[in-house]
Write a structure and sequence with these properties.
Number of strands: 2
Strand order of the largest sheet: 1-2
Largest sheet: 2 strands, parallel
């Protein structure tokens, strides 16, 4: 590593080194953190029509006693408006948290 200064300015150099080291440690921790620690907003933070769609899908899976729904089930539950990619991601995420998958074909 680099040469350490001695004398008057050493306290400042130590402080700067400690700040740099803290930044490096933070970057390393972020890089090593698993990707799945990212969490979407809670269901309560979603628009009401998306929450209703999720509730409908969860109820359908419970009624069928199934852990698998179809894309047709998803289409039927979605609101009539254009649904954003973030809304769809939230739907799939919440369904996955309940152990429910959406697949092609029959459930």
């Amino acid at each position: 590593m680099g040469k350490r200064a001695s004398g008057k300015g050493q306290g400042r150099d130590d402080d700067a080194h400690a700040r740099r080291q803290a930044i490096i440690d933070g970057l390393l921790a972020d890089a090593l953190r698993p990707a799945f620690t990212y969490r979407l907003p809670s269901q309560e933070a979603l628009p009401p029509d998306i929450r209703r769609a999720i509730d409908t899908l969860l109820a359908k899976a419970a009624a069928q006693r199934s852990r698998c729904l179809t894309y047709e089930d998803l289409e039927e539950a979605l609101p009539p408006r254009d649904v954003s990619a973030e809304d769809l991601e939230a739907i799939f995420w919440i369904l996955a948290e309940h152990g429910i998958e959406v697949e092609d074909g029959e459930p």
